[in-house]
Amino acid sequence: MPEGDTVWQAARRLHEALAGQVLIRSDFRVPKYATVDLTGRRVLSTVPRGKHLLTRFEGGLTLHTHLRMEGAWKVYAAGERWRGGPGHQIRVILGTDHRTAVGYRLQVLELLRTTEEERAVGHLGPDLLGPDWDPERALANLRTDPARPLGEALLDQRNLAGIGNIYKSELCFLLGATPWLPVGALPADRAEKLPGLAHRLLEANRDRPVRQTTGLRHQDLFVYGRAPRPCLRCRTPVRVADQGDGSQERPTYWCPTCQTGPAPAPSAPQRWRERHRRTPT
Prior knowledge:
zinc; hydrolase; 4-stranded antiparallel beta sheet; DNA-(apurinic or apyrimidinic site) lyase; disordered C terminus; alpha+beta; metal-binding; 25% helix; 7 helices
């Protein structure tokens, strides 16, 4: 699932390509909207809301999309070859005289009245990259269920909107807590730092082509994707396990030395990798 900074960048690309322009092509390739034609309507804006995208058109219509795990919006110049995937993966095409936006593998796609946008995104907590960002409210939301594992609480978009698996793992590392530590067990001083830290990380990365949380050259992330390589701080092998109810893949990375709290035992394949890992890099 994309992170909030990725969605923010997608919204900016769509806005820069389409806003203020009149559509000369409108093609919805999902049964529910197969007869919809937005040709002739002017695109007003595209804005992000957490991990959701809202593209607004004159006449009071909004296209609500969500990338989920595999979705993508690609923007092409007139005459440019499309390279986002095979044609059967295209869900919607929006074209102007100069640019064409193509939505691939969009698992959430709905057209609604602009006045009804809250029906789609009103459940979300404060947006880490939005004008409604409110760190005090975000912290209060996280604390409503003190027994909930920290990693699961961070992924719950009703608490604060914009965190995915990468930032979940990186934030827990920076807080020195495992993602399985109950929210209520996180020391108060670290809990109070959490919203501001999350906000700074996403703000720092929203304009970067490569996400960076470490401040180190050639080492972009502290733990995410690093198992079983050594922790950048203590050299203990980083571990990985799924977190959640199993309905979705939630790869979660942590350092068993730098982060305190409960954690699942390493699986047999991971123990084998740790014993037979190559020279640390």
